[in-house]
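In the previous chapter we treated chains in isolation. Here, by contrast, the input contains three separate entities that must be folded as one system, with a combined length of 1104 residues.
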Amino acid sequence: MGNQISEAVKPAHLQHHFVDVDQQFESSKLGMWIFLVTEILMFGGLFVAYIIYRSGHPDLFYLAAKELDTVLGATNTVVLIASSLTIALAIRAVQLDKIKAAVNYMAATIALAGTFMVIKYFEYMDKFDKGIYPGAAYSYDGIPHDMAANFFSIYYMMTGLHGIHVVIGMVLIGWMIVKAKKGAVHSGYYTPVENTGLFWHLVDIIWIFLFPLLYLID
Amino acid sequence: MNRIIEYLLPPQRSSLASEVDSLFTFINVAGFLLFAGIMITILIFVIKYRRKSEDDVTPVITHNSILEVTWTVIPIILILIVFSWGFRGFLSLSSTPANAYEINVTAASWLWEFRYPGGGTTVNEVFVPVDRPVKFIMRSDDVLHSLYVPDFRIKQDVLPNRYTTTWFQATETGESVLFCTEYCGTAHSDMLATVHVLSREDFEEWLETGLEVDEDMPLADLGRQTYTSAGCNACHTLDGSDRIGPSFLNLFDSERELADGSVIVADEDYIRRSILEPQADITAGYPANMPSYAGRLNERQIDGLIAFIKELQD
Amino acid sequence: MADSTSNTLKIREFPVEENPKHTYLNADKGILSWLFTLDHKRIGLLYLGSITLFFFVGGVLALLLRTELLTPAQNIIDADTYNQIFTLHGAIMIFLFIIPSIPAALGNFFLPMMIGAKDVAFPRLNLASWWIYIFGALFALFSIINGAVDTGWTFYTPYSVQTGTAVVSMTLAVFILGFSSILTGINFIVTLHKLRSPGLTWSRMPLFLWSLYATAIIQILATPVLAITVLLLSMERIFGIGIFDPTMGGDPVLYQHFFWFYSHPAVYIMIVPAFGIISELISTFSRKTIFGYWAIALSSLAIAFIGFLVWGHHMFVSGQSELSSVVFSFLTFFVGVPTGIKIFNWVATMYKGSIDLKTPMLYALAFLFLFTIGGLTGIMIGALSVNVHLHDTYYIVAHFHYVMMGGTVIALLGGLHYWWPKMTGRMYSEFWGRITCGVIFVSFNMTFLPQFIMGSQGMPRRYFNYVDQFQGLHQFSTIGSYILGVGFVMMAVYLAWSLFRGPKAPSNPWRARSLDWMTSSPPPHHNFEYTPVILHGPYDHHQPMREFRMGVVREAEQHGTPVETDTTDITR
């Protein structure tokens, strides 16, 4: 741990309180991982609510899940997995100083994320048209269960919070594109891109849990 | 020693109280001894090892296995004793005897209603026989409440979405206070009831006669009695000051401005409707949170309340 | 960073500059240089100022409550106002004062100094954490203006869903404050892992840092669950999603499980840092190696771990299953063991020490007295059958005030007096320090001891109105609280005096051994003008002081003639 002081060249991106670049990189990465832990725990609360309600009312989940469009859900799963691939390629490209390719990969990631959100939008609209609103405004009577509204409350909370994370991810990746174009990231310093990638993988992984839990119930 | 414990605790009036109290006493005594031991040690150290000069040299003592094992094992033993003791008491508290006399309890903001197996209802007071297990089967009309009788050492939250139960066997006749101990809003601290423990004969007699209204009592007197027994006093004062609801003073025949802007005269019909359907006419400036007394008061009690309110003019 | 050219370092002693000209206090000027500082010391002081403000607000609210309780009937405020005030007192004291208190104020200031770092790992996140805290505080303020909140700080459903008060903005405030807490936690963990100076191994880390480490772990594991809980509660109020609302098939007991899954560990967020301060104080003022270093360090982690398994002990009478109550009670008692171990270790540290009853040490002793009472009464209410009687009575109120105020606040005051010379560069009046400590200690007991008695006698908590038999004890308690208030005013006066008129502080007035004392008072902008090297443990009072002031010899010096060279090998 920094048991040496290199008085040699201090790169511009090295903050004053770090001894060297490695220390700064490792710190950022550890910080990001801990942040991801807090994210998982936050979603964890929703998963616990889900488990409690599903174990209490298995028939409700079976009946209500039929209302969800599995084809659209599966498409979104594929879209997000593809976006995870493109962001990983973007990180690789930055590490190899192929900034132009990196920008393209990141743009592709944003496009895929956008596709996900558009599909999500159509799914929500379809529900709203039927009167499947969150909470008290729920007015659909196509599900023969008196707690159908509760299933959709959980559905909207989980997918909604996930959707917010997708949007945050898009903003972050957009910021990384700006950084890359300004030449602020390169093979010597790619920490922010890498951390953004980590965040994006988390968004992807959470969806991979949400999809079967909400759409594929039988 | 006994005197201190007696001062600290309410009187023991249920069969379960003495078991709870003996554990309370044990923890207090053991805790006090431990506490005194630690404090005396500190005091001795502070006096004996106070700094004599700035150049004091202290020995390097980093650990002592025997000592450390001792002060780990002894507390573990103590807490295991306390746990098992508390567990045993909890078992008695939660296993209701089969022959218990069952009373249904409904909590509402802010009153307690007790319904007896043979029919009949009391509000904010409950009558129970001595030396016989009594089981409360409880449910809330609105938010969480909690039924607590310190003299019996029982407490149980009352939920809106399912029944909870508690039981006790009173050991002496007399009156005990019953509190609500789960915060429930404005008049939480006025949501009290009285537990009347009656001898077996008195209880039988009360069942026969007590639930019926005294036909001979003048209506206004019955109204005054109902005012406290039904818990009207938690929200409505008699001296013109505001509590949760409007005061009863000068209420009768006054013009009431309602929350929707209309004006209504407080006649007999208005008062009756306000008792049975409280949300129908809400006086402007007051919250719409009074529970309905439909089924909780009989016709004569309602008439009595109206007569009582009529008299309250200054 | 194993790629060093050699595994040995040249080190020498770096003498500490007394009465320094350039300090972090005058490194920059102007209000903006404070509000947007990235210096962890200044951020620590920003936090210290903020929590002091909110402690004052919460304290005034408490005095209002106590005044109202002088008589059973209405006295100065009505029932609704009373309910709002006790809610605000709880919410402000917990979310705005005690949770950020020790970690974000003293921790922020001293954590980097104690490991010889120039700053925390993420200074910008650190500043963001303070701004988010202020933003959350504004939300809380907004809900006070916008109709206040009357649910109790626990926001139990369904009352919190039905009441007409500003619950949503208050829960959002809690949500935002949670972020601030998480950022501090992340920062501390990373800083401790990555920024320690050469030679500062885990076994040489001051126990204050071990306690902050345990706290940070709880912060990052528990706070997100609170975030989702209050988010669900807000959604419940805005959309009526029915997760916790029984009228829509939801379960209010589920809310309590969610809430206490955070809020019980949160109790340890509040108390564990206090343990750290007490370890520093007792060792320093006994001038003796701490007894059972690893026992104290690991018991903090043990408490953090067990703390996650005991939330159900808040719910013995809530209607949760009896089996859960039994399991939670059993686990609860096991928090008592590591806590007891700490107390015994502190007492053993004083054995054959050289005990100096300076103000910070008096606070440490007051802590031992009050916290032991708090802990032992915790055993009382952990016992199932007794808990049924004592739950939601003043016994609980007294218990947690003994732990939170008698524990955390007293330790905070001890830490404040201990580090005051380092933070401000001034000494305070030892005489008034001791007197005030005595006043606070006595009046604290006057305020809260009667509440144990009332509780065992059956006085329920959150009561605006009460049965006449309790009036005498209530009045005694109220008088105690007034004196307690006077004690804090006295402290404000002599500390303010010290700030402007106090004598200059030496760099190490207590002759402590940890790194925070091996730099000037007040410290320079970057804490150390060299890279410190640690050769001994933080409590090795038997080692010569100069060996605690070692630093890496600069490369420039190596080629010239070093002032003094020590070639001790500190390969790790």
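The two ends of chain A are 53 Å apart (CA to CA). The CA atoms of residues 95 and 188 of chain A lie 8 Å apart. Compare these points with the single-chain example from earlier in the chapter.
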